[in-house]
Structure formats: C-alpha cells, structure tokens
C-alpha cells in the first residue's frame, strides 16, 4: 500500500528490528532516495531508502549525521540503519519545520523577516565551516579531500579541510519560529576548502530559476542577506565561481527538454555558462 519502486517500508522497519505503529506516509524523497514519514514507538520519524548502488553515499550521510550530534548545527538524529534488499536505509528523527525556500518566497513574509532568515541561513553555513572535518565521526574519514578547481586556477593558499555541505540552499534547511531547526541532505558532504561550499551556495542563489517567478525580484536581497550572515565581506576568487557554474551546468544540462523540469531551458544553460 505504501510501497514504491519495489520498496515496502514496513519490511524495511522490520529489518531494523522495529515495527511501525501508525500511518506510513510517502514523501517526496528526491532523485536518489525514497522517503516516508513513519511512526515507531509513538515517535514520528523519517525513513530514507537509497538505491543499491549508493552504499558509500549512505555511509557518508549517516556518518555526518552522527558526527554532528555533539555540535550546535541541527541535524536529525539517526535512530537505526539497515540493508533492505541490497538497498541501504536509515531511520532518522522527524523535525517539524518549513523549508526556508517556502518561507522566504511566501508573499506574506515581511521583508525584514525574510532578511533575518537569510542572515541566519548564512550564519549556519559559517558554523558548519568552523567544524574541522577530522573531528567528526570515524565514518567521515572516508571522505577524501579533493581539489576541485584546475591546478592552474587554484589559489596558492591551502586552508585546513572543513566540513562542506555542497548542496546548501534554502530548500535543504528547515525553519520554525524564526530559527533554523534542521540542515538536511548531506549526500554531497566532503572535506575541503570552505570556499567551494560558499561558491556553490552563491551560484544557486544567483542562478537557479524559480518556476513561480518570485525569486528573480528577490534575488539580490537574498544574496546580500546570506552574505551578511555568513560574514562574506570579500568576493570569492573567480576560480571558485567558475567551478560552481560548471558544477551547476553538469547538474542541469541532462534535464534540458525534461518534461518534469520545464524551467531548464537553453537560455538558462547559456546564462550559467556566462557565470564567473
């Protein structure tokens, strides 16, 4: 009844030694996972099941979640993990909140509140970048440090590796009562120079289209408020901006002419190519 793509969530819970005691509700889980909201022992949780080829990604996500439990960065607590029909799965606590993207795009959100929320969004990213990668859980030791810009473009300085989210945008942050209550989706987490993460977020805020055509009129305000919260008083070196534009082009080019993503147009891809 709640099965999707051959995955039966009740069976996954049983493989964890758990039994659901309420409604199992399918949720939008993204391109790489199935997601359900479930109730276990009277507690609401999120059940995430990945594809059979994503064992390393699952280890990375679980490792980051567990490693960050002692920190001030809010991530959902991992309750249990399992291997179900060769698919890695994990159960995490449910966090009540609203995606920051919805909050800042809501026409009813006062401009001052929108700026405050985006400033807190920047502050939270700066807090993530204060975390030395080697201080996290042992599982994150598998995350290799990789120079992402061509050697001829790489800055000469070499800062200590920090934890990077690499998909840190308002859709992956939950807010409640004016506070950030969860940072989600650590599938791309890595240990490297924080400027990669900053460049990635900046490119998403600057370039990513909004199908409802609300973001364009707010784009500069969102960028300025995020930068103020992060403390980004100086522009990024062009090498990092070029890398971020290339990463977005790699992400979106395959979706050109995809009926599920009509906002990916040739004009958008050309705009991304010109980004630096």
UniProtKB/TrEMBL annotation:
It holds the Pfam family APH. InterPro entries: AGP_Transferase, Aminoglycoside_PTrfase, Kinase-like_dom_sf, Prot_kinase_dom. Keywords: Kinase, Transferase. One of its GO terms (molecular function) is kinase activity. PROSITE patterns: PROTEIN_KINASE_DOM. It comes from the Bacteria. Residues 13-276 form the Protein kinase domain. PANTHER family: AMINOGLYCOSIDE PHOSPHOTRANSFERASE DOMAIN-CONTAINING PROTEIN-RELATED, AMINOGLYCOSIDE PHOSPHOTRANSFERASE-RELATED-RELATED. This is Aminoglycoside phosphotransferase (APT) family kinase protein. It comes from Brachybacterium sacelli.
């Amino acid at each position: 009844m709640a099965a999707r793509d051959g995955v039966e969530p009740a069976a996954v819970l049983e493989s964890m030694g758990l039994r659901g005691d309420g409604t199992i509700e399918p949720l939008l889980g993204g391109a790489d996972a199935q997601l359900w909201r479930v109730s276990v022992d009277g507690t609401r949780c999120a059940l995430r099941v990945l594809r059979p080829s994503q064992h390393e990604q699952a280890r990375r996500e679980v490792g980051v979640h567990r490693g960050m439990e002692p920190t001030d960065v809010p991530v959902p607590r991992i309750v249990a993990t399992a291997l179900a029909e060769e698919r890695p799965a994990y159960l995490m606590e449910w966090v009540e909140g609203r995606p920051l993207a919805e909050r800042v795009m809501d026409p009813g959100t006062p401009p001052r509140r929108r700026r405050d929320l985006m400033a807190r969004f920047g502050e939270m990213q700066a807090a993530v970048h204060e975390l030395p990668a080697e201080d996290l859980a042992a599982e994150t030791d598998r995350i290799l440090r990789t120079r992402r810009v061509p050697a001829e473009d790489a800055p000469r300085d070499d800062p200590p590796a920090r934890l990077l989210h690499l998909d840190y945008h308002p859709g992956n942050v939950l807010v409640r009562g004016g506070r950030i209550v969860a940072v989600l989706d650590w599938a791309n987490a890595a240990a490297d120079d924080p400027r990669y993460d900053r460049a990635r977020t900046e490119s998403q805020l600057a370039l990513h289209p909004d199908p409802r055509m609300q973001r364009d009129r707010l784009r500069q305000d969102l960028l300025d408020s995020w930068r103020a919260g992060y403390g980004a008083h100086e522009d990024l070196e062009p090498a990092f901006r070029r890398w971020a534009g290339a990463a977005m082009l790699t992400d979106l080019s395959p979706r050109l002419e995809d009926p599920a993503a009509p906002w990916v147009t040739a004009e958008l891809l050309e705009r991304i190519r010109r980004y630096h």
